[in-house]
Amino acid sequence: MNQHQPRILYIDDDEGLRRLVARVLSRKGYAVTTAADGDEGLALTAGGGFDLVAVDHYMPGRDGLSTLEALRGLPDCPPVVYVTGSEESRIAVAALKSGAQDYVVKAVGDDFCDLLAQSFAQVLEASALRRARDKAQDDLRASNARLEALLHEVNHRVANNLQMVMAFVSMQARSVESDAAREALQRAHQRIGTIAQVNRRLYTSNDVEFVAIDDYLAALAQDMGEAWTTQRARRVHVVADPLRLRTDLAVTIGLVANELVGNACKYAYPADGEGDVWLSLRLMPGEDPSAGMRLELTVEDTGQGMPDDGSVRGTGLGTRLIGALTRSRGAELGYEPMRPGAALPGTRARLSMAIAPGDWSDEEFVI
């Protein structure tokens, strides 16, 4: 036995059996207290201090099942072992369904005490394992809570630092004289803002692993529309499935969307004219049903279309960035006219990528 002497309460109306159980089990290392009926046993149990309670079935007044029910209603009720007659399996089953951890068939002599001692040892060991498991789970929950709080703080600080960097870039853009340099700094400002939006959403939500991509893209669209409208009138519209994407995937989607929308805002329409850009994100079944799901991101405009020779406009940095991001995800990106043959054919950029089950989460989303 352990140094701790288990305290047992044995409830039975048979005085002779109570004395026998107390004497035999005390030699086996248990501290035994006895009670003559259910009411006395309930009062003693309510006082606390017992590691286990054993209850006989047949007792005057309150029988064993009634006593068991009342015991289970006590706060921090110790485990209960039920004592039945030799041919009362239905009563034993009823006791187990009512919350008893084990049952012992009553017999005459030391054999009964040996069976009690074996049952007590098994039940106490199982109870100790449950307590250890519960403590480990409580410790894990507390550790996870501390970790989430730390991650929220990290994301908060990262978002603040990125906001400061964005302010520096904006100040630099206002101080340069070259239009090309100013535009390059403004695009850099937008790219940093795309990442800052993710961190901002991580520290303002209860989830530090996933980002609500529909809300994220809507916020990005508003930021991009406002940023481009300072130079030329642009309206960015978003339709996105209500998904939560893993943080790194959300950043990739956001950066690609930023580049594609930026290209459309800059090149699709005349500098002195208005224009609309449509951004959509959908979760779709893969071509092979066994291959899982795929994401499809599209950016559309009704402007002048792509150059006939497919040449890249501007510095090409955005194109290289899109290429690097899509390759890292094994994605496919293609361009096509929105309205083939029209005077203003427009452009549809379509990005398609396979995603694993762990990349997205939304129990309410149904295909």
TrEMBL record:
<feature type="modified residue" description="4-aspartylphosphate">
    <location>
        <position position="56"/>
    </location>
</feature>
<keyword id="KW-0418">Kinase</keyword>
<keyword id="KW-0175">Coiled coil</keyword>
<dbReference type="InterPro" id="IPR001789">
    <property type="entry name" value="Sig_transdc_resp-reg_receiver"/>
</dbReference>
<keyword id="KW-0597">Phosphoprotein</keyword>
<dbReference type="InterPro" id="IPR011495">
    <property type="entry name" value="Sig_transdc_His_kin_sub2_dim/P"/>
</dbReference>
<dbReference type="Pfam" id="PF07568">
    <property type="entry name" value="HisKA_2"/>
</dbReference>
<keyword id="KW-0547">Nucleotide-binding</keyword>
<dbReference type="Pfam" id="PF02518">
    <property type="entry name" value="HATPase_c"/>
</dbReference>
<dbReference type="InterPro" id="IPR003594">
    <property type="entry name" value="HATPase_dom"/>
</dbReference>
<feature type="coiled-coil region">
    <location>
        <begin position="126"/>
        <end position="153"/>
    </location>
</feature>
<dbReference type="Pfam" id="PF00072">
    <property type="entry name" value="Response_reg"/>
</dbReference>
<protein>
    <recommendedName>
        <fullName>histidine kinase</fullName>
        <ecNumber>2.7.13.3</ecNumber>
    </recommendedName>
</protein>
<keyword id="KW-0808">Transferase</keyword>
<keyword id="KW-0067">ATP-binding</keyword>
<feature type="domain" description="Response regulatory">
    <location>
        <begin position="7"/>
        <end position="121"/>
    </location>
</feature>
<dbReference type="InterPro" id="IPR011006">
    <property type="entry name" value="CheY-like_superfamily"/>
</dbReference>
<dbReference type="InterPro" id="IPR036890">
    <property type="entry name" value="HATPase_C_sf"/>
</dbReference>
